[in-house]
TrEMBL record:
It comes from Dokdonella ginsengisoli. Residues 128-234 form the Metalloprotease TldD/E central domain. This is Metalloprotease PmbA. The gene is pmbA. Residues 36-100 form the Metalloprotease TldD/E N-terminal domain. NCBIfam families: PRK11040.1 (NF008268). The keyword Protease applies.
Length: 450
């Protein structure tokens, strides 16, 4: 059995999911709900793990379910089931209605405005089933790991390689008459290696994540890249405490942007749990910086024609000339703030940080002397105060050149200052995420070490 359905079977499945969703809406209304929305989904996949030339895991998945929300006036009830069986769905409807009848009213409850529903759903090129057998996936995983292990004799161990294949189909409907279906695939390859010399052991990894398997980097490249990163960390040492410039590589820099997105999200804002409360129209980043949400990028990791409430997505600025242009809102958080939804129920879509002209080498030269961060540890970030303190590993840079690997340091500052003091964004954009950014150079942070 293939891990994903073919095109014809998928079309039939999407129609079935849409029919289920519409039927659930009718049944909720029949039980007295004034409004209702429902999502019916089927997810399928294959996951293979190999380590040291041996197969460790082979897992096929096929999950399905229905989640629904009903409103009795301004009272809300939600329930879900991991089953498309009619009896299970009927029980789920009963549970949601019972919850709604006994909850307190909330004036912010309710569906999004009917006028905002998506009128058309374009093909965003998100569906690329990967017809790979378990045996082929095992061979691919072994090829990735073998390429890494053969790179350098100091690589004497491995945390393994993984091949993951995934496909998702969803139908969303609500009592406003909106029905929308979407399908998408996500595939990934990864490997983590361990090297050892007289100074001890180091571990590092590399991966690729795509919508279409034809977009993957070569298997041996992924293995060699992980090996290069692992060997480069050998001989890592600490630093004395200092203030210095810090350069985040793209896969780490997107986490920095992620904290901004979390702080600008409605849930944190209406709870007054964000340092960006009342910041729309105020500068957050330098005046040259632009950040845009582009929900309909072809093959984008976060692409969608409508949000989790059926609201049509569209391109929209988040940061214009350094100024926070808007918050990130679904209809509930928007009502709590006296604003309108930004089609972000369920989360943010593709976020594009406008890159500068500098490549990675030019950013190192621009930093001149400072810390290059390649990995972060810990969760020391407060969205309420903006305080930021995390363990870091990377490399010490002098005169624009990498001097030696660094470990066991902590980098600290406040997100307000970090964002305001961004020096540059590189053009080395990492495409493996819905947050598309290059390396980010900060003017100064405290590096706490020995």
């Amino acid at each position: 059995m293939n891990s994903v359905l073919n095109h014809d079977a998928t079309s039939t499945e999407l129609e079935r999911l849409a029919q289920i969703a519409e039927d659930v809406i009718r049944r909720c209304r029949a039980k007295g709900a004034s409004e209702a929305d429902v999502a019916a989904s089927v997810d399928s996949g294959l996951s293979v793990g190999v380590r040291l030339g041996e197969v460790e895991t082979v897992e096929r998945t096929r999950d399905r379910g229905v989640s629904l929300t009903v409103y009795f006036g301004k009272r809300k009830g939600s329930a879900s089931t991991a089953d498309l069986d009619p009896a299970s769905i009927e029980q789920t409807i009963e549970h949601a209605c019972a919850i709604a009848r006994y909850t307190e009213e909330d004036p912010a409850n309710g569906l999004a405005d009917a006028a905002l529903m998506a009128k058309e759903i374009p093909d965003l090129d998100l569906w690329h089933p990967w017809e790979i057998t378990a045996e082929e996936a095992i061979r691919l995983g072994l090829e990735i790991e073998d390429a890494g292990r053969a790179f350098d004799p100091r690589i004497d161990n491995s945390d393994g390689a993984a091949v993951q294949v995934g496909a998702s189909m969803t139908a969303y409907a609500n009592s406003l008459g909106f029905v929308g279906t979407e399908r998408g695939t996500h595939h990934s390859l990864s490997v983590a290696l361990i090297a050892e010399d007289e100074n001890g052991m180091q571990r590092d990894y590399w991966y690729d994540s795509v919508r279409a398997a034809g977009d993957f980097a070569a298997a041996d490249f992924i293995g060699r890249k992980a090996a290069e990163r692992t060997v480069a960390r050998l001989g890592a040492r600490g630093l004395s405490t200092r203030d210095c410039p810090v350069l985040f590589v793209p896969e780490v820099a997107r986490g920095l942007i992620g904290h901004f997105l979390s702080a600008a999200s409605g849930g944190a804002l209406y709870r007054k749990a964000s340092f960006l409360v009342d910041h729309v129209g105020k500068p957050v980043f330098p005046a040259w910086m632009q950040i845009t949400e582009r929900p309909r990028l072809p093959r984008g990791h976060g692409s969608s024609a409508f949000d989790a409430e059926g609201v049509a997505t569209r391109d929209s600025d988040l940061v214009t000339d350094g100024v926070l242009a808007r918050y990130i809102l679904g209809s509930y958080s928007a009502r709590k703030l006296g604003l309108q939804t930004t089609a972000n129920a369920g989360g943010i879509h593709n976020v594009v940080v406008q890159p500068g002209e500098d490549d990675f080498a030019a950013l190192l030269q621009r930093m001149h002397t400072g810390l290059l961060v390649t990995e972060l540890m810990g969760q020391g970030v407060s969205l309420i105060t903006g305080d930021y303190s995390r363990g870091a590993t990377g490399f010490w840079v002098e005169n624009g050149e990498i001097v030696h690997p660094v470990e066991e340091v902590t980098i600290a500052a406040n997100l307000r200052d970090m964002y305001a003091n961004v020096v540059a964004v590189g053009r080395d954009v990492d495409p493996r995420s819905h947050i598309l950014t290059g390396s980010i150079l900060l003017e100064r942070m405290t590096v706490a070490g020995e």
